[in-house]
Write a structure and sequence with these properties.
Elements: H1 4-10, E1 14-17, H2 20-27, E2 35-39, E3 42-47, H3 52-58, E4 62-65, H4 72-83, E5 87-90, H5 97-106, E6 112-115, H6 119-123, H7 129-149, H8 159-172, E7 177-178, E8 183-186, E9 207-212, E10 214-216, E11 219-220, E12 223-228, H9 234-253, H10 260-273, E13 285-287, E14 294-298, E15 311-314, E16 317-320, E17 324-327, E18 330-335, E19 338-341
Helix pairs in contact: 7-8, 9-10
The structure holds glycine (GLY) and manganese (II) ion (2 copies).
Keywords: Aminopeptidase, Hydrolase, Metal-binding, Protease
Family: Belongs to the peptidase M24B family.
Protein name: Aminopeptidase P family protein
């Protein structure tokens, strides 16, 4: 298993894995609640009776049930004594301070606590062909649902109704869940990149920004399209054209060997030169996998060199408070000499 390197890198003799996505990645366990206890030659999943039956089917690891008679800390103490592990790695980036303090108090067998500092998350950065296949399907479900939604969008429908319809269309096509809360932002709401769908009705002349994703085999999709209800005005066409140009330039540039910051700059400069630099506050993109926002990012502050098999979103935007906003987002798999764009939905400005 690739996590074996973590023992050598950190000096840990046991790894206590609590991040639900890392648990799933390493063991296959989908329940999310529990803990992995790993040594170089022992793999244990500790979970409770809500999950033990499913866990037995999902993971090849030994499953131990925690309950009132046999608490998690007692199981951990037994495992520590059996394996003679005294240096324990823990997930400092996701564990609560109070949980860490409780573990420290409960496990006197541990003489040294070693923060894993995101080492296990980093194992997830480069996706296998199988993982990319799941993400290709997840994004395809999004594409199909978007196509099915467009003819249903009508003036008078609320943002909440439109978001529910989009989610229904994804679920009907095999989505297990959603990557994040669907964004359905119309009119002046669309200037808020992460607007929450409301009872506002879709109106003629509105920009409608739809940012959504679903999970398939645990893996997330992520895409955004912005359309206009009715006819677009000149300013809407101008904003849309700039964002599309910025996105196309970044998609053209992205490839293995470049730092993510370089790809961000490519898109950002186009938006700046067009006079909208102050209207694009967020980074150009992020990686995606079992979780929606993973590292590395396409951002001015991330110089990580892109590698084949990394997934990135490319999502420039222009947001003008009081007027509206545009974002166009595709999700790509980085390759040696470019990328595979997993998003197929059309990108010319759609006037509904
Ligand atoms: N709204 C989530 C994302 O696109 O990153
Ligand atoms: Mn998105
Ligand atoms: Mn995104």
């Amino acid at each position: 298993m690739e996590y074996q390197a973590v023992f050598q890198e950190t000096g840990a003799e046991a790894l206590l894995i609590t991040d639900p996505f890392n648990m799933r990645y390493l063991s296959g366990f989908r329940g999310g609640e529990g803990m992995l206890f790993l040594t170089e030659d022992r793999q244990v999943l500790i979970t409770d009776s809500r999950y033990t039956e499913a866990a037995g089917k999902e993971t090849a690891f030994q499953v131990m049930e925690e309950n009132r008679e046999h608490r998690r800390t007692e199981i951990l103490r037994e495992l520590l004594r059996e394996t003679k592990a005294e240096a324990a790695g823990y997930e400092d980036q996701s564990m609560r301070c109070s949980e860490f303090a409780a573990l420290q108090r409960a496990l006197p067998e541990v003489k040294q606590w070693i923060p894993l500092a995101g080492r296990v998350d980093r194992l997830r950065r480069i996706k296998t062909p199988e993982e990319i296949g799941y993400m290709r399907r997840a994004e395809e479900i999004g594409d199909e649902a978007f196509e099915a939604l467009l003819p249903l969008l009508k003036p008078g429908m609320t943002e909440l109704e439109a978001a529910a319809e989009l989610e229904y269309q994804m679920k009907k096509r095999g989505a297990e869940g959603f990557s994040f809360d669907t964004i359905m932002a119309s009119g002046i709401h669309s200037s808020m990149p992460h607007a929450i769908p409301s009872g506002k009705k879709l109106e003629a002349g509105d920009f409608i920004t739809m940012d959504f994703g679903c999970t398939y085999q645990g893996y997330c999709s992520d895409m955004t399209r912005t359309v206009v209800m009715g006819k677009a005005d000149e300013k809407q066409k101008e904003m849309y054209g700039i964002v599309l140009r910025a996105q196309r330039a970044a998609l053209e540039l992205i490839r293995a060997g470049l730092p993510g910051s370089r790809v961000d700059r490519e898109a950002r400069e186009i938006i700046e030169k067009a006079g909208y630099g102050d209207c694009f506050g967020h980074g150009l993109g992020h990686s995606v996998g079992l979780y929606i926002h993973e590292e590395p990012r396409l951002s001015p502050s991330d110089d990580t060199i892109l590698e084949p098999g990394m997934i990135e979103t490319v999502e420039p935007g222009i947001y003008v408070p009081g007027f509206g906003g545009v974002r166009i987002e595709d999700m790509v798999a980085v390759t040696e000499d470019g990328c595979e764009n997993l998003t197929r939905s059309p990108k010319e400005l759609l006037e509904l």
